[in-house]
Structures are given as C-alpha cells and as structure tokens.
Design brief:
- The chain is an alpha/beta fold.
- The protein has 16 helices and 14 strands.
- The strands form 3 sheets. A 6-stranded mixed sheet has the order 6-7-5-8-9-10, with helices on both faces.
- Strand 9, helix 13 and strand 10 form a beta-alpha-beta unit.
- Helix 2 packs parallel to helix 5, helix 5 packs antiparallel against helix 6 and helix 6 packs antiparallel against helix 8.
- It starts with 7 loop residues before the first helix and ends in a 10-residue tail after the last strand.
- About 35% of the residues are buried.
Length: about 450
C-alpha cells in the first residue's frame, strides 16, 4: 500500500530518469550585494549537486524591490522564460524563498518546474532520512510546505494518501481533497512525533547523571569526524551536505571526569527553514538538553564566519544561544593563513584543530576539560558510614578526589557537574551534610 513515505515524488516530475537541466537564480538587492548573491548561488549549486541535477545556467538578477506576484519583475520573468526555452531547461531554482502565489504564477509563466531554497533543502533531507524519526520529521515539514502550494500538479497525492483510507467527498475538487488528506496526515504525523518526543523525555531523564556535550555546526564542518575520532563511533562521514540527519550519542572519556556524553546531530545551513527546525525538535533535543555546546566551523571555507553566524541564528531559534559553548575551528590542514589570523584574533578562546589529520586534537581535549571544570562544583559531603546507598550514589555519579574515614563518619571530597548535582542532591538522604570544598582542602588536583 502506498504511503507518503516517498517524499521525493512531491518535488519532481520524473527527474529520476535523466538529470533534469536546471537554471539557478539569485537576486541582488540593497540587503544582498552582488558578491554575497554569488556566494549564496555557489552554495545552492552544492545543494543541487547533492540531488544530482545538471546545472545548465546561472542568473544573478538585480531586483530593487520584491515583486509580490512574481518575486522577480514580470519583464525579467519573461526574459527568463525565453532563456529556458532556448536552452531547453526543464526546471528553475530560486536561491530565495518564494511565496505560494509567486511560485504558482512563475510556474504558469515559465512553464517549467519551479523550486525555491526551502524546497531544495527539504528534498535533500527527504533523500537522506534513514530512521523512522527522521522520515516522520521530514514528511511533516514537507507536507506543511506543500499544503499552501498545492496546484493541479499534485493530484497524484490522493493516490499516495489513499492508503490511510480517506476518500474524496462528493462535490470536492481534487485540490480540496488533497488539502483535506494532507491535513489529516499532518495531524497523524504530529501525534507520532509527540510519541517520539515523550520517548526522548524518558531517555533524557535516564541521562540526568551525565554531563552532555553537543556537537553543532554548519553542514559539512566535520562534526561527525570529531565524534568518530573522540569516541570511536562509526557515524557516516561524507563530503556532502547533510550527510547526517540523525543523532548519535556516545560516551566521551576524559581524564578525571566520568559520565560524559558527546552527541552529533543534523548540520545547519543559512536560512534553515523554520518549519524544518520545528519538526526536527526531537532530533535537536540533544542540543537543547546539552550542558555544553561545541560549535564546529570549517576554517578552510571562505565563508567560515558567515557560517558561524548562521549557526548562532539557529541556536538562537532553539533558545540555547546563551548556553556555555566552545568554538572549534576545524580543517586547519586546509587553512588559509589570512582566515586563520582573523579567526584567532576574533576568537581568542576558540580551539583550532584538524579532526581528519588529527592535528592539535589534544588542545580540544584540554579546552573541554577546562569548560567542564567551569560547569562543575567541588563539594565536601559528610555521611554516617551506614548510609550505604548515599555512598554508592556519590561514588557512581561524581568524581571523588578523596575519601576520609573519621569517627564513624565518611568524608567525601569530590567534583560534581552542576546539572548532575541538581539531580543528585534530590537523591541523597537527609543524613548527607554538604559544604563547598575550598581549593586549599583538595588533596588531588584536577
Ligand atoms: N581537510 C579536512 N577535511 C576534513 C576535516 N574534518 C572533516 N573533514 C572532511 O569534511 C567532510 C565532512 O565531514 P563530516 O564529519 O561528515 O561533517 P559533518 O559536519 O558531520 O557534516 P553533515 O553531517 O553533512 O552536517 C568529510 O569529507 C570529511 O572527511 C579536516 O580536519 N580536514
Ligand atoms: Mg555529520
């Protein structure tokens, strides 16, 4: 029985047979000078390349004001129509997002498939989704995107969604039926995602005793390479945008600290569609739950700093912009000397490594140790010797520097992550007497 799983069908009209010839369009305006429009178009080219389309033409148009009906001016659209015809190009991709009206009007005028940036990103996500969670999230984001854009082109949808048993009522047009079917499906997907989210809530409660570090960054920056190097994980690493869409969590071993989890998840990109961020909430949870966020940036990219800005924007949208963070500039083996100097000057606290060539990775370990130390506290806990379960909790969930036995009292000198202490303090019995540990009292230095 067919379902909406095969999202790719919503975006293409038979392009799987031979690569469709595609034209890319960027726009220059007062917010976007020509060199920026060019950079963005180069990135769009990489994205389109991921989908395997053939880029036949690129156009950068100067457009002072956005036309509400056609996005570009009608005259420009007519000229584009001519270019498409003469070069026999079957589809056009705009680097900016188009409103449903603009998309519909352009489609009619240009007589080719019209896509925008969000549509392209959604399609890449749909192609790369492997797990049930990622597939559900991308299907939801896709349908929400399609709903206001339905045209007669999508009439095959009814056949697709027929599997869930909803039929057209009498007197409904095909598009009305499609809309109704999509709304039903969206409601079902939201319920499925709520269930997935509840499962994650239970999981994260189980991890209350761990210090959580999340790798974040622009797509292709090297997040998965760092996770693999530091934890021996086996996450797919590829020179491809959005290679990873799921989250992997692994234990990280650092001398003197225990129960540290390092997670790797989906990469970010400039103008990441809002509804995609919203529907990927459960996957992005490792970031919103993290005690420390690592922002990985590709120093070899000429757009490194802009990419870092885009990452900041997404983190802001996730509500974690002020979370303790560490910036890691990766790929120093490919480094442009000038970019390196600017980055060092602008980010004196940052770490510079090459995860692939394993250069300066000890610096990252040290920086993590320092960052973790700032997120913890040193405590002295006094317990009667018969408080066995308290002793076990302390030994299992903190780093104990010293245990002293004195007149039937056990004294622990320890380090505990602040976030873990919030949980542990509630688990200890009332027999535990806690005080802050002064540096001078510490027997073993960390
Ligand atoms: N030259 C160089 N390449 C690197 C380095 N680290 C990672 N790479 C390469 O960069 C590409 C992307 O690496 P990934 O680890 O997949 O990047 P990611 O951030 O997980 O990417 P997404 O999952 O797509 O968001 C791969 O081809 C890696 O081999 C490095 O230090 N130097
Ligand atoms: Mg990855």
């Amino acid at each position: 029985m067919s379902t909406l799983r095969h999202n790719r069908q919503f975006f293409t009209t038979g392009s799987s047979v031979a690569p469709e010839k595609t034209m890319l369009v960027g726009v220059v305006n007062s917010n976007q000078p020509r060199h920026i429009a060019k950079e963005h178009l180069a990135e769009l080219e990489l994205l389109i390349g991921t989908l395997g389309y053939l880029i036949a033409d690129r156009q950068i148009l100067t457009q002072r004001t956005i036309d509400p009906a056609y996005f570009i001016g009608k005259g420009q659209a007519t000229e584009i129509h001519r270019l498409l015809k003469t070069q026999e190009i079957g589809e056009i991709v705009f680097d900016d997002d188009l409103t449903p009206t603009q998309m519909r009007n352009l489609q009619e005028l240009l007589e080719v498939e019209v896509r925008d940036r969000t549509g392209v990103i959604l399609e890449i996500f749909a192609n790369h989704a492997r797990t049930n969670e990622a597939r559900t999230q991308i299907e939801l984001a896709t349908l929400e995107y399609l709903l206001p854009r339905l045209t007669h082109r999508w009439t095959h949808l009814e056949r697709q969604i027929g599997g869930i048993g909803v039929r057209a009522g009498s007197g409904e047009t095909q598009i009305e039926t499609d809309r109704r079917l999509i709304k039903t499906r969206i409601a079902k997907l939201k319920r499925e995602l709520e269930a997935i989210d509840r499962h994650h809530t239970v999981q994260s409660k189980h991890r209350a005793d761990c210090f959580k570090i999340a790798l974040t960054g622009y797509t292709n920056a090297g997040k998965s390479t760092i996770l693999n190097l530091f934890t021996g994980a086996d996450v797919l690493v590829e020179d491809k945008m959005f290679a990873t869409l799921d989250t992997t969590v692994r234990q990280l071993r650092l001398d003197g600290y225990q129960n540290i989890l390092l997670s790797d998840t989906v990469g970010f990109i400039r103008k990441l569609p809002h509804n995609l961020i919203a529907s990927f909430r459960s996957t992005l949870r490792e970031i919103t739950d993290a005690d420390l966020i690592i922002k990985v940036a590709d120093l070899s990219s000429p757009h490194c700093l802009q990419q870092l800005e885009s990452v900041e924007e997404v983190l802001q949208e996730l509500g974690v912009a002020t979370r303790p963070a560490l910036i890691v500039f990766n790929k120093i083996d490919q480094m442009d000397e000038q970019a390196f100097k600017i980055a060092q000057k602008t980010f004196p606290e940052a770490v510079f490594i090459s995860a692939l060539r394993q250069l300066k990775t000890a610096d990252l370990k040290q920086a993590l140790v320092r960052a973790i130390a700032r997120q913890g506290q040193r405590l002295q806990i006094r317990l009667p010797v018969d408080a066995v379960s308290d002793c076990a909790l302390i030994r299992n969930h903190t780093t104990v520097y010293r245990e002293i036995y004195q007149d039937n009292i056990l004294i622990f000198e320890l380090f505990c992550y602040k976030s873990v202490w919030n949980w542990l303090a509630r688990q200890l019995s009332s027999a535990a007497v806690v005080s802050e540990l002064k540096s001078s009292q510490i027997g073993i230095q960390t």
